[in-house]
Each structure stands twice: as structure tokens, then as C-alpha cells.
Amino acid sequence: MVGTLRRVAVIGGIRTPFCRSNTAYSDLSNLDLMTAALNGLVDKYQLEGKLIDEVVGGAVVTHTKDFNLTREAVIGTKLDPRTPGVTLSQACGTSLQAALGSAAKIATGQIDCAIATGADTTSDAPIVIKRKLAQRLVKLQRAKSFGEKAKIFTQGFSFSELAPVPPSVAEPRTGLSMGQHCELMAQQFEITRGDQDALAYASHKHAAKAYDEGFFDDLLVPTAGVFRDNNLRADIELEKIAELRTAFEKSERGTLTAANSTPLTDGASSVLLASEEWADRNGLRPLAYLVHGQHAAIDFVSGQGLLMAPTIAVSRMLDKAGLTLQDFDFYEIHEAFAAQVLATLKAWESPDYCREVLGKDQPLGSIDRNKLNVKGSSIAVGHPFAATGGRIVATLAKILANNGGGRGLISVCTAGGMGVAAILEGVNPVQNTIH
Questions:
Q1: How far apart are CA 9 and CA 1, in angstroms?
Q2: Cβ neighbours of residue 18 under 8 Å, at least 6 residues apart?
């Protein structure tokens, strides 16, 4: 390992277009999507036949056959088949956490290059059988005679055991879905339906403009005949959004709808990271540098907001980096729900929250909303859980490169009351930061 830390270059990334569940990618698996994203990266950066030190990533909604998903995807690509593949999962933070782990190895000299990746498809969600039936099937395998096998299905058997267990997104510890938890956050922080709808509207408009300007042209690899995210609505109208019924809370307190929440989405992303030396040897120029990362968790089981852990992760990361919340040119806050983004911003502005939860004498303060998710985010383009972090890293790195430098903040909330945060800096020195 090197004696001093090396800078970690974000060479760039690519992803499949994101598609609503059970639409264009209904016949594709996590493996298909991850392989497509990785091969898109191989083609973009001429990595065919190259031995990459590691490819790290995973999926959230998986089958048992996906136990070695990332390695299987690598074998299916044009990379050198000796490239190791490591499968991990941290819910919606998976590919960002993968990037942070590999970046640490690059910084310390353990490796020179890596790919962070993530894929998810809820179109191919596993159908689970009930535990009682599973136990019977195990006994059936062990039974030797016909009589023993028949006995297994005659003693206490009920046809109700044959009913599959439907896929669930509820938190096991609370029984509440992420949307229900976010409704509680919206009530706690007094986030209005109108503000949520406005943020969702802006996300679609920003993403549509980015497409029109060609920003996404080299960030997408066409997949299964799809060339752009099919959730995006360029013609969206704020008045129409306001007419939708609430999705998680049916009482008058409800504020979250299908329009101001992310849809179930299929897709994959990949990001190439490297030391400056490796990039130079391979004729590649960095778009940005990954300079800080942090993750945190919150005690949502005892009543804290399920999706508020990024407020803690960002606060700790800023302390370690010696920065304030205002020292950024761009902010990428994952839009799991518009209410989550707005609750996060309000928490950072709150003296009480910052004192009681973050341990701060002063609030972190406000950000310039004109710098937030300037190319749209998850509400517009979609959210294949494990792929979102990679999408954001690649998007922000290109934004910084196009901007001629600067600094960007990433904040991603995840299931299980966790959050992952990171800081990217442009290739050119950061100037004129606001304090």
C-alpha cells in the first residue's frame, strides 16, 4: 500500500435507460441488466479484454440464483474473465457504497482500478412459498418410500399452504412500507402536498431539458430497444399532478402520491474509478474525483424518520472534510420521495433537529435550491434500487466536468434507516465557494 493517499478519479459511467416495472424490461433479469450496463462501460472506455482489479455491486430484489450476481455479470461481459466480481447490497445505497469501498482501496494503493455497479428489476421479483410448505418439500426430498412421501402431504396439510407469499416492501421491524414511513416524516416536518408536487414537477422538467440538450447521450446504453427513461414526462402539468389521489395515507393527512414518489423501476448502472496513474496509462481523462464518503443509520424502529439517516451521514462527512453545507456548486439528493428531500432540507435548517439529532450548536443551514438535482433525479428518471447511486455519481461527475470544476454533494437514503453520502470535486480547483 502507498504511504500517502492517492486521488480517486471518476472516469465516468453509463447506465441502461430506466423503465417502469413490468414494461420494456419485463423479460430481463438483474443479470441481463447488469451485464448490459457493464458492457456499455466497456465499449465507452475501450475496456475490452482488460483486467479490472475488481467489479463491485449488487441488487436489492434478488433470487437465490443471484448469490454471485456481479461475478456472473462480469463473466458475461467483454472484460477479461479473470476480473473479480464482488456482490454486496446496502438497499438503495448499493452502488454508491460499492464506489466508496473500491475508492478506499484505490486511495491506499491496494488496487488501481474498479467498477461500481448495481441493477434491480421488480419485474422479476422472486415468488416465495410459505415456510410450512417449504418444510414439507424438504422432508419430501428426504423421504425414501412412496408411503413416507404420501404421509408428508396427508398429515395436517392445507391447500392454503400453496398460496405464494406476495413480494413486500414493508420494513420487517415495523410492518410499514417506505411510503408510509415517509408520510410520517412529512407530517413531522410539516411538508405540504404542494411543495412535494412542485419538486416532482421540477424533476421532470430538468430531466426533459437535459435530454433535449443531449446531456444524457453518452450516459445511456440502449437496452432491449429502449433509448430513454420511460417514466419521464416532458409534458407534465403541475395542475394534473395536484389531482392525483394519495398513495399511502388515505386520510386528509395524506400527501404522497404516485407523482411525487418514485415508481418501481428496472435498470442498471456502472461507474469506472481509477488512480490517476492508471487513467493516464490507459489514455483516459477523469471527469471528477471522489474525495469523501460516509454512511450512517438511524433508530427508525423507536420512531425516528426511516429516511433521515442521510442528514447524519452528510453532517459527519462535512465535519471530516472541513466543509459547510453551503460549500457546494451542486447537490444530488436522491428523490425516493419528494417529501424525503424536503424533510432533509428542513432538518438541516432546524436548530432543534441539528442540536438533538446531529449534535450541532448551529443548524447546517439552507442550500441554494437552484443547485439541486439540476438534471432531474429519481422521481423523473426512475429508481432501480441498487442502480441509483451509480447513476448519480456518473451524472454529477459529468455536471462538474461540464461546469469546468467545482464541488458536488451526494445524499442517498436507503431502506433499513440508513443513508450514504459522498463528495465529488471537479478536475479544476474549487473556487468562489460560499461560506
A1: 18
A2: 229, 230, 231, 265, 266, 267, 381, 382, 383, 384, 387, 391
> Which cell is 351 given?
436548530
H-type alpha helices, 143-236: 146-152, 178-188, 193-212
182 in active site: no
Helix H segments across 114-257?
A: 131-142, 146-152, 178-188, 193-212, 238-241
Amino acid at 418: M
Here the cell at position 432 is: 468562489
| Catalytic, out of 181, 292, 413, 435 | 413
pLDDT at res. 130 = 73
Contacts of 228 (CB under 8 A, 6+ apart): 17, 211, 216, 220
Cα–Cα–Cα angle for 123, 124, 127, rounded to 5 degrees: 120
**CA distance readout (Å), 221 to 13, 151, 175:** 10, 54, 38
Mean pLDDT of the region 280-293: 98
Span 203-257, pLDDT tens digits = 999 999 999 999 999 999 999 999 999 999 999 999 999 999 999 988 889 999 9
Q: What is the pTM of this model?
A: 0.93
Taking the C-alpha atoms of residue 29 and residue 413, their distance in angstroms, rounded to an integer, is 25
Q: For the chain, which domains are there?
A: 178-213+290-426 (3.40.47.10)
Cross-strand partners of 226: 223
The residue to which cell 461507474 is assigned? 271
User: Above pLDDT 90, what percent of the chain?
Assistant: 85
> Tens of pLDDT along 355-378?
999 999 999 999 999 999 999 999
113 tagged catalytic: no
| N-to-C CA span, the chain | 36
**What DSSP line would sit under 281-310, residue for residue?**
HTT---SEEEEEEEEEE--GGGTS-TT-HH
pLDDT in tens, 86-129: 999 999 999 999 999 999 999 999 999 999 999 999 998 887 77
Question: What percent of the chain is modeled with pLDDT above 70?
Answer: 97
DSSP codes, 81-106: TT--EEE--BTBTHHHHHHHHHHHHH
* Active-site annotation holder among 19, 92, 182, 354: 92
